[in-house]
Amino acid sequence: MNTPLKMLRYALMTGTFFGPAVSVFAAIPVVANDVDNLIIKVLCPILNYLFTIALIVGILMALVAAYKYLTSSGDATKVSEAHKTLTYAAIGIAVAILAGSFPLLVGSLLGWQSVNRC
C-alpha cells in the first residue's frame, strides 16, 4: 500500500545492516604510504556521508511515525503500525551511532593512532 514508506523503511534497514560492516573496515590500522593515504582521502568522506545519510533517514522515519500517530484517530492497528515504525527508527538511529563510533572505540582500545584521521 504505502510503497514510499516501505522503500524508506528498506533504506533504513539496509543502512543499519551494512553500517557496522563498513565501520569495521574503517578501524583497520593504516600504514603511511600513498595508497593508504588515498584510501583514507576517499573512504573517510564516503563513510561520513553514509553515517549522515543513515541519521537523516532515521530522523525522517521518526517523523513519519509521529505523523502516523497523529493521523491514527485512535485506530488500534494504525497506532500499532506507528509504534513499530517509531521502534524501527529508534533502532536504526542507535545502530548508526554505534556503527559510527565503533572504529574509534576499537582504535582507542588497541592503541591505533590512524583511526582518528577521519
Structure description:
This protein has 3 helices and no strands. It is elongated, with a radius of gyration of 18 Å. The longest helix has 37 residues, at 34-70. The termini are far apart. It has one domain. The model has no long low-confidence stretch (mean pLDDT 76). It has 118 residues and is mainly alpha-helical.
Describe this structure in a few short sentences.
This protein is mostly helical and 118 residues long. The chain contains three helices and no strands.
Could you name the key traits of this structure?
elongated; mainly alpha; single chain; 118 residues; 0% strand
Distance between the termini: 41 Å
Q: Based on CA inertia axes, which overall geometry fits?
A: elongated
**For the residues shown, what is the average pLDDT?**
76
Relative strand content: under 5%
Stretches where pLDDT is under 50 for at least 5 consecutive residues are none
Task: Tell me how many strands there are.
Answer: 0
SSE run: HHH
What is the count of DSSP helices, taking H or I runs of 4+ residues?
Answer: 3
- Structure class: mainly alpha
